[in-house]
Amino acid sequence: MINVGVLGATGAVGQRFVQLLAEHPWFNLTTLTASERSAGKLYRDVVKWRLDVPFPEQAGDIRVSPTGVSSLKDVDLVFSALPAEIAGGIETACAEAGLGVCSNASSHRMDPDVPLVVTELNPDHLGLIDVQRDRGRDGFIVTNPNCSTIVMTLALAPIRDFRFTDIRVATMQAVSGAGFEGVPAMGIFDNIVPYIGQEEEKMETETLKIMGTLDGSTVRPPSFRVSASCHRVPVLDGHTMAIWADIADPVDKVREAFLNYTPSVPALPTLPEKSVQFFSEPDRPQPRLDRMRGRGMTVSVGRLRKGIRFIAMGHNTIRGAAGASVLNAELISTKNYL
Amino acid sequence: MINVGVLGATGAVGQRFVQLLAEHPWFNLTTLTASERSAGKLYRDVVKWRLDVPFPEQAGDIRVSPTGVSSLKDVDLVFSALPAEIAGGIETACAEAGLGVCSNASSHRMDPDVPLVVTELNPDHLGLIDVQRDRGRDGFIVTNPNCSTIVMTLALAPIRDFRFTDIRVATMQAVSGAGFEGVPAMGIFDNIVPYIGQEEEKMETETLKIMGTLDGSTVRPPSFRVSASCHRVPVLDGHTMAIWADIADPVDKVREAFLNYTPSVPALPTLPEKSVQFFSEPDRPQPRLDRMRGRGMTVSVGRLRKGIRFIAMGHNTIRGAAGASVLNAELISTKNYL
Amino acid sequence: MINVGVLGATGAVGQRFVQLLAEHPWFNLTTLTASERSAGKLYRDVVKWRLDVPFPEQAGDIRVSPTGVSSLKDVDLVFSALPAEIAGGIETACAEAGLGVCSNASSHRMDPDVPLVVTELNPDHLGLIDVQRDRGRDGFIVTNPNCSTIVMTLALAPIRDFRFTDIRVATMQAVSGAGFEGVPAMGIFDNIVPYIGQEEEKMETETLKIMGTLDGSTVRPPSFRVSASCHRVPVLDGHTMAIWADIADPVDKVREAFLNYTPSVPALPTLPEKSVQFFSEPDRPQPRLDRMRGRGMTVSVGRLRKGIRFIAMGHNTIRGAAGASVLNAELISTKNYL
Amino acid sequence: MINVGVLGATGAVGQRFVQLLAEHPWFNLTTLTASERSAGKLYRDVVKWRLDVPFPEQAGDIRVSPTGVSSLKDVDLVFSALPAEIAGGIETACAEAGLGVCSNASSHRMDPDVPLVVTELNPDHLGLIDVQRDRGRDGFIVTNPNCSTIVMTLALAPIRDFRFTDIRVATMQAVSGAGFEGVPAMGIFDNIVPYIGQEEEKMETETLKIMGTLDGSTVRPPSFRVSASCHRVPVLDGHTMAIWADIADPVDKVREAFLNYTPSVPALPTLPEKSVQFFSEPDRPQPRLDRMRGRGMTVSVGRLRKGIRFIAMGHNTIRGAAGASVLNAELISTKNYL
Q1: pLDDT (tens digit, 9 = 90+) per residue, A282-292?
Q2: CB-CB under 8 Å, B186 with C181
Q3: Do D58 and D192 fall into the same domain?
Q4: Long-range own/partner contacts, residues B269-273 (CB < 8 A, 24 or more apart)
Q5: Fewer CB atoms < 10 Å away: N or C end of chain D?
Q6: pLDDT for C23-78, tens place per residue?
Q7: Is the pLDDT of residue A336 over 90?
Q8: How many domains, chain A?
Q9: Co-location of A9 and A142 in the same domain
Q10: Do residue B54 and residue D293 have CB atoms under 8 angstroms apart?
Q11: Quick one: D197 and D75 in the same domain?
Q12: Do B289 and D50 touch (CB under 8 A)?
């Protein structure tokens, strides 16, 4: 068992981390950090638990530490659910102090020597950890992409060998993506907000890093481009997206690729039976019905039409955030980085 | 004053027609038809009024007639809010009997000699009425497009002189588009349904007819293509759509075109002050805040980005259905067709 | 293992029955009935599965039978999810043919010799089965109450020994209570409908039967009265209700009764750890957060204030329908009625 | 024309005040105040307009002042949309400085010499202004009740002559009641929150003051009691409530009272044609369909049943806040207080 902690354990993504780690077979959750105000109190007394799954009572007994490297003496690996504004420095300090950091924050995603990893898609990018070590760092930072980028790239994984030069994606994103307090009801009830700050930029740049080729110490981007239009919709969980990939091959061949997809990763506790589930029904996937497939870790794909057009949907706070990070950590644990 | 009637006056679109015609300055609403079951009763006693504007009491006093040409002796012009399954034959019979028919049904939209008109966009297509007359028809049929097609084409009107070869559009469509009973709450609450029957086909074919060139007795389609992905979202009224138009010109020139747009149509009672309103705010248009601009007749456009990408939004049962039909009828009234 | 069937297996409640019975430790689900149109086909091919839990694949292999007693030769016990309009006759025929019938339909609920049972509350009412048998019936019918009645009466169970003369209840009921197609989105989005047909009457009469005293062959009603006001709200699952019970005792004593409640029933597979969960938090229970407690079988209670006023909430299609019926069947199985 | 101002003009209630006053026939809106941060800028540049009615352009040209008595030199009457935390002192200072203050804040509502007025219900309570003046105050403070209290008391106005000893009310309150940012979407989507801080206390105490009798310089409360249970529901605007009033008279007599109600107030610009509208339809009133009756100033009542039970519904930010205050100010203007 590897002792692990969560930085920023009381927020929306932090709670998901706690839920996924509370009974994890490989990881022993010992440390939870939050703001100074909460430090010293029991987790159960400071967290306002808002997931619709029962509160993990054993995590409730953990005494919360202040967010910082000095709170992490007993752990080997730490998950970061910190907001981007403060994540950068703290994560660097942790890595310098010898810790493995699996971060959901955007701060280090585009750093040249920080792997930006979707477990099924580019596990080899973990090789960048060696680059970090070569320049004297004891620990390391590994990041996972933005929630909508994860859903899209995983949906593209089965068809990445078809050549495409242009990806266009229109997202319909759930309110949980902005955190518990992020979207006021008055702003989104009976409404759509056709703007999410920095989201389009993240989809357009992160995708190229993830789907690039690790070449020595750098990632060479692929030759295609991504053009995103991102929209908030009145849905609680699950990001849905319409994707155009200009593949010349016939629809049948593309369908086959979706149906036959098996990622080249070892068995991992959080890896779902199917990373990508293909639907033949004309009206699927739907976020409310399909977001919990594979315990929230499966990306659902459907409505494949010539174009090539299709729909992808995945749970944004599980597969698109905490679950993606935990899956990366599991993969790292099978290698010799800790 | 021209005496007018509404075919199918009790449904969602029918009620919108009644609302728009009840106090119309040029049209005198005398006839409302519905199913046999309702015939003979007062409109107020058979309609289950579900608009959030007050019931037009004067229309309530009209005695409902059975749907058919024999009920329309006193009118010169009839609006059709009939479902496509029955609209075709009845509308033809009306036109043969000498009536002008302005139809929101899809039955005749793609008939070669039936104009498919968005008033601001292709008023000249009304010339096809002469083609109908040349083959011996006393009356005529004029149609308006599908609701999402209207919003998109009107949003494209200001920039149609830029050359584009490919239009891609991802829609987020309101539940009212399916009629009052069309979408069960259990199907769309906290959900998205990425499929609307025949909607993508309509957007892809109707757009080419509307934006085509009338050449003698036929409409020559433009050279661009349309690829649509249509989705139902939990919004009551207002279709929002993300549009990509592959225009090479810089964003500033395109913005200018949106800002300077004035359609070449005479002043008409239902014509809004602005047919297309351009927003500079980063998070607009939004359906709940903007759908009632221009009393529901304005299409709002915003988030113009390089690509060219932008957002369009319009009220689907007013601008996208009944209002579009009434506006067409007003234009027809200024010519010599009645 | 007891062979069981479900009458009306494709609707909202029918699907819940199938979900709960597919892997039941005591019941072997062998028979599913539906309309003539579906008969002869595999369940997976006729059901439009709309629960947000995975489809039970083993049930999918069952070939659907037409709804009627002749389809039930191999079962000893049948669950009825039929609509009230047709349930009455079919259920009687089944009981006459020797089958045990556990029905969620309202048809026989108020029949004098049919037990109307909430397992934890009035298990002794099953004694009415003997009354049915005494008049020559081979099988029997046992019913569970209306969904909102179940939630309220179970919430009253811990405090039934306090004397109250008047119960007032205002419900806020989920749309799933009307079936998948029962409530159009246009009717309930951003809205409340302050009327549910026959719901108030059911709460007012069924409560008195359940909470009455079995006295020989009849149930003697209690002396209190119930006054209900029932309202549909835009919530998917979970009926919430504000209850006033005119108890003179202090709030502390009532709280204690809620906290100490343990029903007098044997351990049953579907019985939750807590039938009634009491919340001290000021803003609980909430349907989205609490409806799945006890796998949907726990009724949550909170906001206890002088008056005595409190809030009760329970999952309407699990605890309030299929789950209640299955729990009753489990209790019956522990006795000698099958 | 009377020059008026609005304290706290950028918030939810402040925007409603601006909307109602921008084209008022008696009041000339000259002054808008907000926080220091906004002071000195044009209203159009600091307000994030979120109403679904067009922004009043003439108000947009007003230069915002800091909130305080020194900003109000040019006005005779000021409307307060301040939060309760800061309203108390500022309103007192304004009144001492000779201004008339019509406040929607709760700070002074229960002060013995401050009238708490629903225009149609207790206009005579304005007599308390004289009590304020007798103790040397140049100006005055008049308050309107909490939003849900206004809807309930106005619904009780037509039947106040029937004797009741107990009122029980269960509310289903819209999210706009908590301000634009008050309720996160994650907290209320597909959910009910059975708690609104201080709301029940306000309904229980304010009602007794409004419906009390002015006796010299004090208000004598009526003999009945109010017991409230308040709940937040996923509705944008419009508070709905189920009310029990223990009236012994038959339902028909009560219905007649509702139908015949005419308040004893002079014609005022904001007074709707019907202050209380009675519905005979079994499923009305409904917030989405009925909240804008009387331009948001009508309270709708229906589902009258023995008990006496009935449903009341009114627009919470118009009739329940800004509109109530403006109506009070209009009544005051017809008297000699300014």
Answers
A1: 999 999 999 99
A2: yes
A3: no
A4: B269/B24, B269/B25, B269/B26, B269/B330, B270/B20, B270/B297, B270/B323, B270/B326, B270/B327, B270/B330, B271/B119, B271/B120, B271/B297, B271/B327, B271/B330, B272/B297, B272/B298, B273/B298
A5: N
A6: 999 999 999 999 999 999 999 999 999 898 889 999 999 999 999 999 999 999 99
A7: no
A8: 2
A9: yes
A10: yes
A11: no
A12: yes
CA closest to B195 among chain A residues: A283
Which contacts of D264-268 are long-range, i.e. CB under 8 A and separated by 24 or more positions?
A: D264/D120, D264/D123, D265/D119, D265/D120, D265/D123, D265/D331, D266/D331, D266/D334, D268/D119, D268/D327, D268/D330, D268/D331, D268/D334
The number of C-beta contacts closer than 8 angstroms across A and B is 106
CA distance B277 to chain A (A): 16
**For residue A232, pLDDT beyond 90:** yes
Name, in order, each residue with C-beta under 8 angstroms of C76's C-beta and a sequence gap of 6 or more.
C2, C3, C4, C99, C100, C338
User: Amino acid letter at B177?
Assistant: G
- Calculate the average pLDDT of chain A: 96
CA-based R_g, chain B, Å? 19
Judgement on whether residues B163 and B291 belong to the same structural domain of the protein? yes
CB contact at 8 A, C142 and C178: no
The verdict on C54 and C66 lying in the same domain is yes
Q: Do D193 and C283 touch (CB under 8 A)?
A: yes
- SS3 of residue D39 by DSSP: coil
Classify residue D80 by its DSSP letter: E
> Do B42 and B60 meet the contact criterion of CB atoms below 8 Å apart?
yes
Q: What is the mean pLDDT of chain C?
A: 96
CATH number of domain containing D69: 3.40.50.720
Q: For the segment C58-67, what is each residue's pLDDT rounded down to a tens digit? A: 999 999 999 9
In a domain, D338, yes or no: no
Rounded CA-CA distance D158/B170 in Å is 52
Domain-embedded: residue A338: no
Q: Is residue C87 assigned to a domain?
A: yes
Cβ-based contacts of D288 with chain B (< 8 Å) = 52
How far from the centroid of its chain's Cα atoms is residue C146's Cα?
6
Mean pLDDT of D127-151: 97
* Cα dist from B222 to A217, B160, B200, B216, D317, whole Å: 50, 11, 18, 16, 50
Residue range of the domain that includes D130: 2-146+322-333
Taking CA–CA distances from A51, the nearest residue in chain D reads D186
A235 and A285 share a domain?
Answer: yes
Say whether both D116 and D162 belong to one domain.
no
**Cα A151 from Cα A171, distance rounded (Å):** 10
Position A9, amino acid:
A
Residue D280, both tokens: 């005979």
Choosing from A94, A102, A147, A230, which is the catalytic residue? Answer: A147
Beta carbons of A295 and B206 less than 8 angstroms apart: no
Model pTM score: 0.96
Whole-number Å distance between alpha carbons of D167 and D144: 21
Tell me if C289 and A52 make a contact (CB, 8 A cut-off): yes
Q: Say yes or no: B174 and B280 in one domain.
A: yes
CATH of the domain at C268: 3.30.360.10
pLDDT digits (tens, 9 = 90+) for A84-118: 999 999 999 999 999 999 999 999 999 999 999 99
Give the residue on B whose Cα is nearest the Cα of C49.
Answer: B187
Q: Quick check: is B338 in a domain?
A: no
d(CA C158, CA C245): 13
CB count in 10 Å sphere of residue C189:
26
The set of chains that have 3 or more CB pairs under 8 A with B is: A, C, D
DSSP assignment of C233-249: -S-SS-EEEEEEE---S
Whats the size of chain D, residue-wise?
Answer: 338
If you average pLDDT over residues D297-315, what whole number do you get?
97
Phi and psi, residue A212, nearest 5°:
-85, 180
pLDDT band at A245 (very low <50, low <70, confident <90, very high): very high
The pLDDT tens digits of the residues spanning C245-277 come to 999 999 999 999 999 999 999 999 999 999 999
Would you say residue B336 has pLDDT above 90? no
